[in-house]
Amino acid sequence: MMNDSIEISVLTTSEGADLISDTLTDLTGEGVCVSDKRDVLEVLSSKTNWDYVEGGVLVDTDDVVVKGFCKIEDKEKILSQLEERIAYLKSEDFGIDYGTLEVQVKEVCTKNWNEEWRKFYKTVELKKIAIVPDWLDYDGDKAVVKLEPGMAFGTGEHASTRLCLSLLEELDLVDKKVVDVGTGSGILGIASSKLGAKSVYMTDIDQKAVEVAKENVEKNKVEHNCVVEVADLSDELDCDIVIANLTADILLRLLDRLKKAVKKGVKLVASGIIAERLDEVLSSYESAGFKTEKVLSEDDWRAVYMVF
Questions:
Q1: pTM > 0.70: yes or no
Q2: Are 271 and 303 in contact (CB under 8 A)?
Q3: Which domains does the chain have, with CATH numbers?
Q4: Quick one: average pLDDT of 37-43?
Q5: How do 199-204 and 177-181 pair as beta strands?
Q6: Which H or E run includes 4?
């Protein structure tokens, strides 16, 4: 099913975003989204940033964009009311810098995204593991990880995830204790369980990711040895293997805490490293006592297997 709707964007400031968001929500009866470059910069500077930032997120503008949607038949009424609200804000001195309050309007196609986004996912087969979207069937002979990606990172489609999975397949995980740092969708932790791990502790600082990972753990019936929690890296990790599919910057930030948290002999599978940052990550970790055992490459991405 597909129908048309109206996208209404208001250009404002970080200071004015809340009030403009409330205004659009009130007029449209729907939720809004806010694009603020400052929020992304704060995430990037945070010491607990475990997220990927896609190219193009940092747009070359200081405007904060508050965006809402309405039906075509409601367009004129809502725009008229919005114009009145904006005129009132401009006429009164509330001590708030609202920016330009420029309104941009365009017609967009609204699809049934619950169906549309699924078209982008397919079964990913490796040597021992098959990552199968929950809505697809699989009749192969590999260990199956059923996945509902939701809004969390980790589907098996991204090179960094595939590289991690390939390294895990080469390790002996039978009866091993695994910690998956920044678990995202839970794909790597669940795969570890399917490969014979005794226990898997999966952490993420994103509540939504943890909710998705828990659903995927239940879907794969590995609750008996997989625990998922909202948590940062703990001071002491009782494990044999640490998985960290993050980014080069985050791996470097975690290094001091990681070397204090693990015992000698612990194996590290790390990914999310772009090619030009590999030497920096390797040299830093080797200086801290890790020994590089293997590096895998795919396109511009690198994954490493190290032993402490």
A1: no
A2: yes
A3: 2-111 (3.30.70.120), 117-307 (3.40.50.150)
A4: 51
A5: parallel
A6: strand 2-12
